[in-house]
Specification:
The complex is a heterodimer of chains A (148) and B (549). Chain A has 148 residues and is mostly beta strands. Chain A has three helices and ten strands; from the N terminus they run βββββαβββββαα. In chain A, strands 1, 2, 3, 4, 5, 6, 7, 8, 9 and 10 form a ten-stranded mixed sheet that branches. Helix content of chain B is 91%, strand content 0%. Chain B is elongated. Classes of the chains: A mainly beta (148), B mainly alpha (549).
């Protein structure tokens, strides 16, 4: 399984390559002042406006560093007609890893988006499930926006 | 006895009469004793002893023992005994001859002397001649008949000798009796004379006693009178008047003298009384004046003490100051020297500083060039890292696409991975370069700052050096003027110190004078006190005298 490793604060995380649409450099976004704190702006991507969530802000409580390593990963949430695109901003998005084996770590009910650990990689990166990533309120927000 | 004849001459007269009488008495008594002293008690004792010896011992002048020896020799048969008897006979003859010599010298050439030294002696010497000659030779020959015949001749001589001795004894007895009678008569006559003299002495003594009694009575009365007057004078009563007398003897004169003394004493005491009053007031004035003067002198002494102390302090201070000034002078000289040295050193420093400033400026320019170059490097590196980033992103997207393509994308995936690895290495290298350039830039910046600061310091140092040089010049000139002033001050100080010392000595002398004056005043005060005491005592003593009205 090919996965993209990155960091959100101190946590070493990973996303499966099949969930990723495209990796973009950090580009200027249209800000959303009244939106929840983790939603840092809108990204025009392939003809649609894609909301971008800062994972570092979500996990570590601080915005991502303004570095070249900080990139936006565009993922698809949901299946079929329900699916839609979300940008996830994270730090040190530069490493692709091949993992053969994954194992379940600690299960946190309130953070279901944190999945299994890649057991054969240094630092035991934890897989992020994009479908579970966003809180319900955010998801609803994105869905309605998409409907509109 | 005249009234006005003096007592001493009267007594002398009495003593002279007594002495004359007593001398006469003594002369008579001495003569009597001289003439009759043989009849005294001691004389009788001596005579008794002589009589006893005369009765016991055979008399040498009466040769009866020699005669008896010859009788014994005629009958004696033992030759040893004969020899002893002959020797005894010789001894007796020598004894007789010695005594005969004595009597020849002593006795007068009268009848008794002739009998003793001529008649009896001739017979005795004949007897001894016969005995020592024919008789002894007959005895030794043993011819007793011849010896008896010679003994008969010797007996006739002995008889003649004995008759003469008997006559001498009779004559001596008669003479002794006559002398004793004379002595008795003499003693009786002298005893009468002595009795008369003793009677005269008793009479004189009686008369003397009578006159002495009279004179003593008169003397006693007068002396009693004088003694009473003297007692009263001693108790201070000078009012007594003594009846003057015409008597010219000692007591009369004594009375007159006492009278005169009494009067002059009265006058004297009166005058002394007045004088003592005046003396008392004078003494009081003296005491008051001297006390005042003493307090003044003491105050003067205290003031002088203070002044002396102050002057001493001034002298000490000025001397200290003098020493300090001398030290200061030396120091200022040294300071001037040092300042000159400093000035010459500073001019050297000045040129060095200038060179240093130039060097610093050159270094700053070079550092600026380095900084610019570093900035250019940074720009290139940034470009490289951007390219590397883009390459990395592209390879990631390519890999993701290949993964999604499945089996067909495998080869593409390997290619994408290689590209991504190169891009990563480039990024790491650019990161290193960037880091190095940053460090270089930091170091250059720090160096530039240091150089700037150094240059600034050098500039300010040059300014400071210039300023200090100017100050050194000022210091030198000031110190030079200061040195001259120091000399002046030094001179003044020295003269001041000397003056203070002179004042101190003068103060010391003044203090000594004041002390001596104070002592003298105290002594004077004491003397005045004792004078007052003495005057008081005098007044008390004089008050005892009663001068009457």
């Amino acid at each position: 399984m090919l996965a993209l490793a990155f960091r959100a604060g101190d946590s070493l995380l990973a996303l499966a390559a099949r969930d990723i649409v495209e990796v973009l450099p950090r580009v200027p976004l249209r800000g959303l002042p009244l939106a929840p704190a983790a939603v840092i702006g809108l990204l025009p991507f392939r003809g649609t406006l894609t909301p971008v969530v800062d994972l570092t802000l979500l996990v570590a409580g601080r915005p991502s560093a303004r570095q070249l390593g900080t990139r936006i990963i565009v993922v698809r949430i949901g299946n079929g007609s329900d699916s839609r695109l979300v940008g996830l901003q994270a730090e040190q998005v530069s490493e692709l890893i091949d993992s053969e084996r994954s194992a379940t770590g600690l299960h946190l009910p309130e953070h279901a988006w944190l999945g299994e650990h890649l057991a054969d990689q240094p630092g035991l990166p934890q897989l992020v499930d994009p479908a579970e990533l966003l809180p319900d309120a955010l998801r609803a927000l994105f869905t309605e926006q998409a409907d509109a | 006895m005249q009234r006005n004849s003096q007592l001493a001459s009267r007594l002398s007269l009495f003593v002279g009469v007594f002495l004359v009488l007593f001398a006469g008495f003594a002369l008579v008594a001495w003569r009597t004793l001289d003439q009759v002293r043989v009849k005294g008690v001691l004389y009788d004792e001596i005579i008794l002893g002589n009589d006893l010896i005369a009765d016991i011992l055979p008399p040498p002048q009466y040769i009866i023992e020699s005669y008896l020896l010859t009788l014994q020799l005629v009958e004696e048969k033992d030759p040893a005994e004969i020899t002893r008897l002959i020797e005894r006979g010789n001894e007796l003859r020598i004894e007789y001859e010695n005594r005969q010599e004595h009597w020849k010298r002593t006795l007068a050439k009268d009848t008794m002397g002739d009998l003793m030294t001529v008649t009896s002696s001739r017979a005795a010497l004949e007897f001894y001649r016969l005995r020592d000659g024919e008789f002894v030779s007959a005895i030794r020959a043993g011819d007793r008949e011849q010896a008896r015949r010679i003994l008969e001749q010797m007996r006739q001589r002995y008889e003649a000798h004995r008759y003469a001795i008997v006559e001498v004894v009779a004559l001596a007895r008669q003479r002794n009796a006559k002398f004793e009678t004379q002595a008795d008569e003499l003693i009786a006559g002298q005893t009468r004379t002595l009795s008369l003299l003793a009677l005269g002495i008793v009479l004189v003594v009686v008369v003397m006693a009578w006159f002495a009694r009279r004179a003593a009575a008169t003397l006693s009365n007068r002396v009693q009178l004088v003694s009473d007057i003297a007692d009263r004078v001693a108790q201070g009563d000078l009012t007594t008047t003594v009846p003057s007398t015409d008597d010219r003897d000692e007591t009369g004169r004594l009375l007159n003298a006492i009278n005169g003394m009494n009067q002059s004493l009265r006058g004297l005491v009166t005058r002394v009384k007045q004088a003592s009053v005046e003396l008392m007031s004078t003494a009081t004035e003296f005491a008051a004046t001297s006390r005042q003067q003493e307090s003044t002198v003491q105050g003067f002494g205290a003031s002088t003490n203070q002044i002396a102390a102050a002057v001493k302090q001034i002298a000490a201070t000025s001397q200290e100051l003098l020493a300090t000034m001398e030290g200061l002078n030396a120091v200022s000289g040294q300071t001037a020297d040092l300042a000159e040295q400093g000035q010459s050193g500073l001019s050297n420093l000045d040129s060095t500083m200038d060179r240093l400033a130039q060097a610093a400026n050159a270094m700053a320019a070079r550092l600026a060039a380095i900084r610019e170059e570093a900035a250019e490097i940074t720009g290139v590196v940034t470009t490289i890292s951007k390219v590397a980033d883009q390459t990395n992103l592209l390879s990631i997207n390519a890999a993701i696409e290949a993964e999604k393509a499945g089996e067909q994308g495998l080869g593409f995936l390997v290619l994408a991975r290689e590209i991504r690895r190169l891009a990563d290495q480039t990024a790491v290298a650019t990161l290193d370069i960037e880091q190095m350039v940053k460090q270089m830039q930091t170091a250059v910046s720090a160096g530039v700052m240091e150089i700037d600061r150094f240059a600034e310091e050098v500039r300010s140092g040059v300014g400071t050096v210039d300023r200090v040089g100017g100050q050194f010049g000022q210091i030198i000139s000031q110190v030079k003027t200061l040195s001259e002033r120091f000399d002046t001050v030094n001179h003044g100080m020295r003269s001041q110190s000397q003056g203070a010392r002179q004042i101190g000595e003068a103060m010391g002398q003044l203090l000594d004078g004041a002390r001596q004056t104070s002592l003298s005043l105290r002594e004077f005060n004491a003397a005045t006190e004792s004078l007052r005491d003495a005057v008081t005592v005098l007044k008390q003593e004089i008050a005892k005298f009663n001068l009457g009205s």
